[in-house]
Amino acid sequence: MGEVDTIVAVATGPGGALSVVRMSGPSAFEILSALCDGEQPVPPARVATLRTLKDPAERSAIDRALVVRYPSPASYTGEDLVELSCHGGWLIPALVCEACEALGARRAEPGEFTRRAYLNGKLDLVQAEAVADLVEARSRAGHRAAMSQVERGLSRRVGELRASILHLEALLAHHLDFPEEDDAPVSVDGIATDAAELAGRMVALIATAPEGELLREGAVAVLAGAPNTGKSSLFNALVGRERAIVTAHPGTTRDALEAVVQLRGFPFRLVDTAGMRETPDAVERLGVEVAFERLTEAHVVLLCVDDGAPPREPSFLARVKSTPVVVVRSKADLRKQAPQSSAPPEWCADVVDTSVVTGEGLDVLRSLLPSLVFRGMVQAGTEQPVLTRRRQTRALQAALDAVRAFHAALLSDVPPEVASSHLKEAETALEDLVGVIAVEDVLDAVFAEFCIGK
Ligand SMILES: Nc1nc2c(ncn2[C@@H]2O[C@H](COP(=O)(O)OP(=O)(O)O)[C@@H](O)[C@H]2O)c(=O)[nH]1
Ligand SMILES: [Mg+2]
To answer: How far does residue 138's CA lie from ligand 2's centre (Å)?
Structure first.
């Protein structure tokens, strides 16, 4: 790695009343002094101090800003870091950055502050990823998962798994050292049982991945059904504003409209489609094709029907066999008598009567959709650690495969010394997952309960 330089960037979004300019690196304090033209006293560490920032070339004032100095290592990046709260808008933050650049700083790359924080051991990789998710969260559940990862929820869970691997290694070492002991505390069978238990915990964490990954993207909920069955009206009611065009004339929605909504705090991408029907109209037929395409990426389908009759499975659902389907019997306010409630047919998850006129059934849908798509999180609560990225899932899967290989090797004729190489693999996979781990605390935990040297 080359010489570390000093980076600068506007940390806040453009156009606000205030902006924060951040600068990190070995020259940060020097540049700050020059920015304050060397005459104003250097602000004390970690105390917000008012300073006039000056243009280094023209010596003219750019802004009066609150300056905070964070000496290394007690800063976000672990380096000397300066935060300048200046006036916002479009020009001032840019001028402040340019002034810092003129004094020797370089514009930061995206994510570079957090990258430095990781490299300096301030965050592990999972936490660093979660910082990005936190800023981009668009649902409360997504926010909670990101916050829990920032607070090391997932890192701790991975740390526990890693400690269990080290424990297996230690048991194996003990077994190899004292194989003949009659009352040996560790038998091969015992180690195999522990390995199977560990694999089970890994499986449970991996099982959170499909839902966790959807927290960032949003689950796709597609409104399908024949024209005029109230799809667009339902879309508008769930989105909460008049987005889609609603008309009494069948076949008006020709495109697929999409809106991001939160249902009980979970992110959904609600997709309104053209009705599914045979039509001679070329434009409408295109819409029907788009509807079919969107169906294939749905995580849940809302099949709208506008009579109270027992629903029949439409042929197009053959395309989405494994996706849960909710039958929405719309326009309930128009029906004279409540339709008989019977058990939903086996091809659909539930049947809900709705009316956008009275609001009937809308709350049922708002709860039902998260419970179908985010079932595990709804049941376990959103405080449990979940995997939210492909990278995390792949690493954990690699670790699981290695633990299973270890288990299989133990129970076959493979010498235990050889079997143990699989444990090393599993360990490496988990290390890759969180980046460098503080090995010390893991080792401490292992040896506290394992008194091999007594
Ligand atoms: N009374 C009543 N009319 C509805 C309801 N939902 C939709 N409609 C009417 O049914 C017609 C078709 O609705 P629309 O949402 O455009 O159906 P789409 O073709 O499936 O998108 C419109 O005239 C709506 O006003 C409802 O819950 N109650
Ligand atoms: Mg429509």
So the answer is: 26
267 in Cβ contact with 219 (< 8 Å): yes
Q: CA-CA distance, 318 to 64, in Å (whole number)?
A: 65
Q: CA torsion angle for 179, 180, 182, 186 (degrees, to 10)?
A: 0
pTM: predicted TM-score of the whole model, two decimal places: 0.81
Reference 328, options 282, 254, 270; nearest CA is 270
Mutate to test the pocket of ligand 1, among 223, 238, 246, 353 (most ligand atoms within 8 A of CB): 246
For residue 443, the model assigns a pLDDT of: 39
Closest of 440, 443, 448 to residue 121, by C-alpha? 440
Q: Residue 122 pLDDT > 50, yes or no?
A: yes
Surrounding ion ligand 2 within 5 Å at CB are 231-232, 253
Which residue has the least CA distance to atom 23 on ligand 1?
A: 248
- Cα–Cα distances in angstroms (integers) from residue 102 to residues 37, 43, 382, 384, in the given order: 13, 21, 47, 47
**pLDDT for res 385:** 93
Which ligand lies nearest the alpha carbon of 287?
Answer: 2
223, 229, 233, 272: residue to mutate for ligand 1 pocket, most atoms within 8 A of CB: 233
Strands 257-263 and 266-272: antiparallel
Q: Is the CB of 308 under 6 A from ligand 1?
A: no
Res. 53: pLDDT tops 90: yes
From the CA of 256, the nearest ligand is 2
More confident residue, 236 or 336: 236
**Going edge to edge, which strands form the sheet with 61-70?**
49-54, 61-70, 81-87, 18-24, 7-10, 106-107
Residue 230, ligand 1, Cβ within 6 A = yes
All domains of the chain, ordered by start, with CATH?
A: 7-120 (3.30.1360.120), 140-208+389-449 (1.20.120.430), 214-380 (3.40.50.300)
163 vs 221: CA distance, rounded Å:
40
Rounded distance, CA 136 to CA 260, Å?
14
- Per residue in 67-108, pLDDT (tens digit) is 999 999 999 999 999 999 999 998 999 999 999 999 999 999
Ligand 1, atom nearest to 252 Cα: 19
Ligand 1 centroid distance, CA of 279 (Å): 20
384 ligand 1 Cβ < 6 A: no
Confidence of residue 225 (pLDDT cuts 50, 70, 90): confident
* 182, pLDDT greater than 60: no
